[in-house]
TrEMBL record:
Keywords: Signal. Residues 1-19 form the signal peptide. The keyword Signal applies. Residues 61-176 form the Rhodanese domain. The keyword Manganese does not apply. This is Rhodanese. Gene3D superfamilies: Rhodanese-like domain (3.40.250.10). InterPro entries: PQQ_CXXCW, Rhodanese-like_dom, Rhodanese-like_dom_sf.
């Protein structure tokens, strides 16, 4: 092989793996909940749910959907001084209910029951009430939460994969606290 030909071959293989436009191949939906790393490329679909972007979310807001933020709570940085107060602030879409960790693939049975019970309370027993699940871009947690809701019979689930980051490009966010009726799962 002449010099540089290996690089050209490598480049051709890399471009083929990424597709002609340089983006990664389409991620397929798993059959059940995603059990791999929570951060990474997600599918463009969620069977049984409607995928929305910012415009789609804006169109839903007049219907007063339940906004479920399942993004994780901030973790105290290693080496954080013990004599300093740790006061993380979670910012979200206005009127969002924050249920950190609710998108984990493996919730304890009591935690999953608490999630479904809390959503049932928020929807006042209306399985057709619009629900929007989100966290951050490339977050499987919101996909899992949406999948869990669809699996349990909620019929108007919307997944907002752009999450808070996408929302705040054109809208304000607000500081939210963990929902008072949500038992935060233990950190793993």
């Amino acid at each position: 092989m002449w010099p540089g030909s290996r690089f050209v071959l490598f480049l051709m293989v890399a471009l083929a793996a990424c597709g002609a436009n340089g983006t990664s191949a389409e991620v397929r939906e798993p059959e059940g909940l995603w059990t791999g790393p929570m951060r990474g490329e997600t599918p463009n679909t969620l069977q049984g749910a409607v995928v929305v972007d910012v415009a789609g979310l804006e169109a839903l807001l007049p219907k007063d959907p339940i906004l479920l933020d399942v993004g994780p709570a901030d973790k105290k940085p290693e080496g954080f001084p013990k004599d300093r107060l740790w006061l993380p602030t979670h910012r979200s879409i206005p009127k969002a209910v924050w249920l950190p960790g609710a998108g984990a693939a493996t919730l304890e049975a009591a935690q999953e029951e608490a999630f479904l019970r809390r959503v049932e309370e928020l929807t006042q027993g209306d399985d057709a009430k619009p629900i929007v699940v989100f966290c951050q871009p490339q977050c499987w947690g919101s996909w899992n939460a949406g999948k869990r809701l669809v699996t349990h019979g909620f019929t108007r689930v919307h997944w907002f994969p752009g999450g808070v980051d996408s929302w705040q490009e054109t809208h304000d966010t607000v500081a939210v606290d963990v929902d008072e009726d949500w038992p935060v799962p233990p950190a793993k």
